[in-house]
Fold each of these.
Amino acid sequence: MDFLFGPFTDNEFLRLSLVATCIVAVTCAIAGAFVVLRGLAFVGDALAHGVVPGVAIALLAGFSGVLGAAIGAAVMMGGVGVVNRRFRLSNDTAIGLLFVGMLALGVIIQSRSESFAGDLTAVLFGEVLGITWSDIAWQVVALVVVAGTAWVCRRPFLLLSFDEGLAATSGFSVRRFANILLAMVALTVVASFQTVGTLLVLGMLVAPAATGALFGRRILTVVAIAAVVGVVSSYVGLLLSYHADLAASASIVLTAVVVFALAASIVEIRRWLEHRRDIHHLHDHPHFHEHVHH
Amino acid sequence: MPTVVVTYSALESVVAGIVGDSARVVVLIPNGADPHDFEPSAKDLETMSSAAVVVANGLDLEAGLVDALDQTEASGIPVFHIADHVTLRKGTGDADDPHVWLDPLTLAEAAPALAQEIGGRIGSDLTSAGTEVAKSLGDLSADIDARIKTLESCVIVTGHDSLGYFGARYGCEVVGSIIPGFSTAAEATAKDLTELKTLARAEGVKAIFTELGTPTDVADQLAREVGVDVIELATHVVPAGGGYDEMMIALTDSIVAGLS
């Protein structure tokens, strides 16, 4: 028992890390379900890196890193929209352009500043072991907003995810809801980057939701499975970091990906067993066989 | 006038003291930037390629400059690595500690060889200047020692393992660091942080000292749990209008203030 709970009862910093990563896991489960279903992983990753110059400028100018990240994400989304609409370039080209542009800008600001308080490592990998209650308060607000948005817009979001054509004919603005969905993903990234960092936040967004999508047919099931996977990964990851002396945020994300791999293996084995049973079934019924040949 | 390029700002005034009026000293890494993270620009490479001598710390402190320094050396410009000319100490592992400049006496060991190297390249005899600089570093060290002696005990927790030479010279015990290791590029682990917390409490540490590249939120959280303050140390930053001496005195005073 001490092995499982001791680290958290003895250390406030680990309790705070666990609370924060669990909140982030649930937020990421909600946004991640739509990211996986609508295929937004690339734009999610781009948003995560688009916040880097915003954070760098915020730390330089002395305002909140969360605010800087939000500005970075807004610029990123606006830029993608402009390139996409004005120049008839495909969406992923627009995203790619903004992605590398913002990331390069972030590195330049960071490397040429003479008194950069935080450093790039902390932004890229997060400071999951340095969570404060005010960080958690922010994350709760983000969770409520993301959950509320997803609930209110669940029908349009689902239509967008499965059939954009049908979505257009069913009488609501595809572009508006696509933008709301993107903003929701952006908010999730901004709220989450402090824990696992901008480089690894995509893992929390995609891996648990992908696991959910393996098993769930309904969006609510996908979100629920994703939330459980995310929370379990956070706990196991922090425990690994404690007992095996591993980098904390990387342990959490790696656990989430390993859980997906295990879940995918189970699905694959089950499929194989079913397939074999069907073949046996065929051999056990010669009449059926004859039928087929005639 | 010939140029001597030094990689980071802490070394500037020391090298300037050796060359005097016979060469211009140019600093590559902006004062206050993390030498572990610095990537040179094209302009920086040009500056290096037109130097008489390039002075670097060595031991991969300038991690992003390693290739550029190799290239410079290959093109026939001598690169003087301070770490090659001083008595090195090892950390907890087997690696040599690159933070040699944080002890003036260790740095002074390199002064004569540095004076000879630069003097040979620019064609003037800098031997006496080298001796002079080594002597003034000795005076600085005595000053630091006197200030540290005012403390009852000097027990230190740092951001990364930067104060090994300083601690060994002035009798300060470095009980641990938030990111154990010589580089700021690593990430904290829950295990290290827990052990550090326990150690800091057991040793009665009075402050958590952070440097450039320390994850600030993690340091704040650790300090809250131990019940002490976080004090930022200028281990890689030369104060405005000052040089190496002023940096080391400011560093010493921050430690003394934090532990009093």
Note: Chain B has a mean pLDDT of 90.
Amino acid sequence: MTFALCVLLLQGCAGWQSALDPKGPAAGELAWLIWFFTALCAVVWVLVMIALVAPLVMRSRPGDEPLLLDEAAERRKMRVVAFAVGLTAIILIGLTLLSFFANRTLAAIGSEAALTIRVTGHQWWWEVRYEDATPSRILTTANEIHIPAGEPVRLLLTSTDVIHSFWIPSLAGKLDLIPGHMNVLDIKADKPGVYRGQCAEFCGAQHANMGTFIIAEPRPKFDAWLNDQLQPAGAPASGEAKAGADLFLKRPCVMCHRIGGTPAGGTVAPDLTHIASRKTLAAGTLTMSRGNLAAWIADPQGIKPGSHMPVADLNGDELNAIVAYLEGLK
Amino acid sequence: MRQALAMLLPVTLALVACQREERDTRPQSALGSGEQPTPVTTLEPGGQRPSPTDNKAASFEANAFHMSEGKRLFSWFNCSGCHANGGGGMGPALMDEKWLYGSSIESIHATIRDGRPNGMPSFGQKIPDDQIWELAAYVRALGGNAPSSAAPQRNDGMMVHPSENRLPDAATLGKSP
């Protein structure tokens, strides 16, 4: 019965966001460490409990002279205590060494990273910047991080407002994003897939709605994606979208957002150049669809109260036109 | 009974401390806000603030949350591009006591919304009305016209002027000769 319950509970530990379902070398190392620590500590706990219960069950009869020391028995007890202390020291030192070697493995992952991505935490979204020696090949996007599968990637983590924490449980341990300081996290995904991440340091009202996705793809697919994203936004296709593009520049959108290839150049909110190619909206809060786009623009404070996306005074036609434009930005 | 009352008093006092300023980030009506006529001159009968007074003004004027939001927007929207952190550059200084178009929050709101001659652009279409009010509240704090208990505190980074809650009070100090 208990076993069945444990199996059921552990089922919840699989999936796209689980430290117990590792999909990369760093997470694998950590998962192994977690299981080994848990197993060893469980054994120690059982031994301690046995040692505690055994004397209660097998009580020795008090001798004739309680004050008289039985030297042989005392020596026996001394040996048991010395053995337990020695074993504890060996186990603790052993576990320390294991953590140390696991840490060395983690540190070695990114030593040959060819790709460097700067991840900046904002309340409450992630700015993602692909570094490149050629300025025209620097890409800025948001919330979704595409990486080539099977290759180490170096992430530079920082923040502009408060402390956030970057955690992709399936790929690596968590690391803080600290304003004015750069942390380095190396990750590697063994296989292509989508891995969910979450801000792991309470950062304000919408901390829970600050998700991110790592999308690991085979190298050719990743290169194609990067080249697509580097292109400026496509021209609006329909008349409605064209009106939306005009409105985007005239209404509040333009104050904060950037769309490559247009005069919209704000850098304080997510880059929308290819927003429709992303899977989610508002840092994993909504799935990408025309309806959700419209809902998000019409009432961001109802969906994500306290977020810095304001309620823009748009009428229905304006809203529809802007959504038509954004939905075409693949 | 008396003991129960004695217990209740500190609990009540502690709970009173949980009261905090309201933070309304979701305007009730998205349309039709900020429809006051534009004052184009500071010449007002009796030198009073331009009328009619917008009923939004009071909820933004001395509100710490709105002023700190205004401070964030002031840098996000690059007001410093012309007003240089309040010290003035291409645009006039905002931290002195010279107000070309009036120092009331309604006047500043109208300035941001509709623009002013010789350079100040109109942001009425580009900034939602509530955010204009927040900016206006902050600009007043820059000039020492906000209560120091509500004005924003120092930045995390280096500041080019004392924090807004330590600027000299406009009513008593800091007047130009």
Note: The radius of gyration of chain B is 19 Å.
Amino acid sequence: MSALEIKHLFGLRGVSKHDIRLILDHAKQFREILERPVKKVPSLRGMTVVNLFFENSTRTRTSFELAEKRLSADTVNFASSNSSVKKGETLVDTLRNIEAMKIDIVVVRHKGTGVPKFLADNSNAIIVNAGDGAHEHPTQALLDMLTVEEKLGTLEGKNVTIIGDIRHSRVARSNLWGMTTMGAHVTLCGPSTLVPRNTDLMNHVTWEPDVKKAVANADAIIALRLQKERMDDALLPSMREYRNTFGITQELLDCAKDKVIIMHPGPINRGYGRSLPFGWRSQQ
Amino acid sequence: MKMRKPCKGRLVNVVLKNAKRWNGKSFELEREARLNACDGAETVEFDCNGALVMPALFGLGLDFMEPLRDDVYTFADGFEAMRKGGFYGGLYESAANPIDDADKFTAMVNRFKTEELGGKDFEIKFLGAYSKGFGTDGLAEMVELAEAGVAGFGDGNAAIPHSRFLRLAMEYGKMTGKRFFFQPMDRTLRHSGCVHEGAYSDMLGMKGIPRIAETIAAYTILETARFLQVPVHLKQVTCGETLDLVCRARKAGIDVTCDVGLYHLLLDDSCLETLDSAYHILPPIRSAADREALWQGVEDGTVNAISVSHTPVLRQDTVVNFEDSVPGALSLEVALPAIWNKLVERVGEARAIELFSTAPAHLAGADSAHDNVVVFAPDRPHVVVESDFAGHVCNSPLMGKELPSSILATYINGVWTAL
């Protein structure tokens, strides 16, 4: 099997179809490991991975840690809340200190767009983005793509509709780059205050303000939660109106294809984004 | 670590050989041109080999950020930057220490004139603040500041707190007859934005500053100026819509001038793709279409001058991710080589010199360049390196880039600097 063309995983924009295919195919193989009594392979034996989380995270950090351990890597968890960052240490200083301990891979989550690239520019370690601001969250998107492929067979030629708070969603951005690279057409739908104002640089992406039209031709629907922690404006009049307009209801699904799959990256804003149980969720 | 050079220069007379010297209309080859500082001074000969000798420049938007960190950047470094870049003077706005009363103005002037800094060699004009401490809604002592000699009033890049204060400040400042220099930026529309709101900000998930943050503020300023009949200047205009407002205001009889920033003419927001904090500049670098609109404003005369907005930023504030970095860029040392060829291509040599030298000096009420000159090779490329910049900072988006031209030497107030 050929090697990845990329050294780091900053995001899915610009990542080739070849690399995405390689990652997804590997993921399918590794999935089988979870069914074994001993859930461990030596792929990363001898490698040290630091999980550098400057933002709160439960699912992503746990997922990374479990995956690292199951691939036999030595892992170290770093949370900014109990680190020298609190004493004023800069990002570069933190990285240099950690790097001095001869680490191989850094998994980073940060509120600032571009922090993974910044760290790569200032270190020799391999950087994996676990979410940077509202920019990208490539691993979550890869999981979504894996789920779609498992359920629909392929992404090529499929219509994927992403509904909700797209402007503040790094998952949505990674999804639209990755899925369009793999041949899907992505439709964005949400309140006009919560979708990107300008999609000029996003090929094979359209914005459809009418949610019924947005789902009509969809093979997969990804419903996003409202990123309340990133909202610092009056972006919605009320959750009630949002739910009534953009919530995934039976009435809405009556407008969609019979075999449409519905996904949600979680965590769910109970009562806002959904009124029905979901068909599938991406599994890390 | 760069060594700090003494800024104070030695007076010399200069003989320039084979220079194409600006005669007020065009560059004319002179086999020998003499620039005399004083009788009895040593004479330096310099063979220009056909290089251009043009009037030295006048910089709008200088801020050396003293007191920032005296070990990193001082007034002396600012003057060295001016000398390297061929600037004989500039309009200074102090964000680090706003000049909001006459005592501060006197202290600032005295500091600039300190012998060892070398500041007395330069034609520096100052803007006084119109609010206490910049961006507040308390009036600065504008009448006394005007009597003390400020060139006009401005609050740096601080946003106007609200329209009522704008009216009161202009109404009060009108007594002085001085021009108000505004950075049009509506603070509520800017909110927490740090880049131009457009395709790139949406693609990168970064908070944007929409054009209307500028146009709405500009409209408010121009309407207030019309109402009160106060002369105003709009600093660092970034989009064509604001230039349209300037044109309409002039037709309505308002005394309004404006400038555009160096980097707003050189760059567009595609640079954001690099996520390099060197491109963190406020007001933000806008789209390619906006940049072209600014060039058209330069061509048709709507734009009065090009500003340099020279702002040193501590290294520790730039070596961070984009959104956490401090905005600002150095420009004095690289402005002329970076833009001269493009400028001449678009507007010709005479207008280029006007935009960079005579017009900004006129706006600041300063004297013209006289015998202060820049020896300039328009076709000699130069890669920007850290040592090109004065002080211990090098925050410039042009760092590492190849500029199409080079400054060979400058002659400012009798001090010859060969580069």
Note: The interface with chain B takes residues 13, 90-92, 110, 112-115, 117-118, 122, 133-136, 167-168, 170, 173, 196-202, 232-233 of chain A (CB under 8 Å).
